[in-house]
Amino acid sequence: MLPVTVQADRLALHELTRASAAELQDGGDGGWEWAPGGPHEGSRFAAGKMLAGMETGRHRDGWGAYVMVRTEDDRAIGGIGFHGPPEDGRVEIGYDLAESARGQGYATESVRALTAWALAQPDVETVYATTDEDNTASQRVLERAGFRRIGDTPRPIGGREAQHLFERNRFEPNRFEQNRD
Questions:
Q1: For residue 154, what is the DSSP state?
Q2: Percent of the chain with pLDDT over 70
Q3: What does pLDDT average to over the chain?
Q4: Ranges of Basic and acidic residues compositional bias (predicted)?
Q5: CA angle 61, 36, 48 (to 5 degrees)
Q6: 160 contacts: CB under 8 Å, gap ≥ 6
């Protein structure tokens, strides 16, 4: 199957192929020209998770890592994607941006577009995300994309801080249109 591409207003979200994921994981550019400050370590980590899913047979086309490509200059500016295929009607989304692309609404635009794509799939009712307690920028992205905070995840013993949990449900009104930048 061909990799999925999701169009957003100013961006195209291109699902990684096996080759591009391997190159990103190994420190390369994955076949894209990146904006300054990219690719972020999160994109490299996501590429590795996608490859691991391919090797174990857990990966499903469409439910992996994507690269955000700005249409005005064809530069990759960040990564977005899913932490795996949907389970019990739920799928987790994550994202990162090159520092030079932050503060311009690209993350919000990407989250909206990929969330809409996911919620249009028959096996997804809810898209969710977690953020560190102190990552207010990411929390604002999710809120502008129509997600609502529903609580916190527990603090792991000896691990990272508790995380805020956000979700967007297929059956809720399309609140993100009210929250446009």
A1: P
A2: 89
A3: 90
A4: 161-181
A5: 30
A6: 132
